[in-house]
């Protein structure tokens, strides 16, 4: 009975040892698979970090370009604003000059009209005097 029980326990022990070995092999395979997966994930993380670094660099470069362009446009706008102010000032000055010249022309036309009228009267007087002097001895 003891011999049979011992034999039975040995067989059970052998079966359990075989199961243990199988389980250890499966565990070793899973560990290997996990190591491979970890390495794969590390490579993927490295690639993604590199892509992120490149994207950051590209974004910073793009932002620098936009900042420079914005500064250039701002400078250009300021220059155009100054030119506009100068043009408005020049226009105002020219309008004043034009108004003054129009006033001068109007006054000169009035004077010319008055002088023409006076000359006409003087001619009439001269003609009248000639006519009178022609009748006088």
UniProtKB/TrEMBL annotation:
Keyword vocabulary terms for this entry: Coiled coil
UniProt feature coiled coil, ranges: 63-97
Organism domain of life: Eukaryota
Coiled coil in keyword set: yes
InterPro entries: LEKR1 (IPR038799)
Official protein name in the record: LEKR1 protein
Naturally occurring in which organism (per UniProt): Sinosuthora webbiana
Underlying gene: Lekr1
């Amino acid at each position: 009975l003891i011999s049979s029980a011992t034999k039975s326990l040995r067989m059970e022990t052998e079966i359990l040892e075989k199961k243990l070995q199988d389980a250890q092999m499966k565990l070793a395979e899973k560990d290997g698979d996990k190591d491979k997966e970890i390495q794969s994930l590390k490579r993927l993380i490295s690639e993604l970090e590199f892509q992120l670094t490149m994207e950051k660099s590209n974004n910073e470069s793009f932002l620098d370009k936009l900042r420079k362009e914005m500064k250039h446009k701002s400078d250009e706008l300021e220059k155009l604003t100054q030119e506009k102010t100068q043009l408005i000032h020049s226009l105002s000055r020219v309008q004043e000059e034009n108004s003054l010249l129009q006033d001068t022309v109007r006054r000169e036309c009035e004077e010319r009209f008055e002088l023409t009228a006076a000359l006409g009267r003087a001619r009439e007087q001269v003609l009248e005097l000639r006519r009178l002097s022609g009748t006088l001895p």
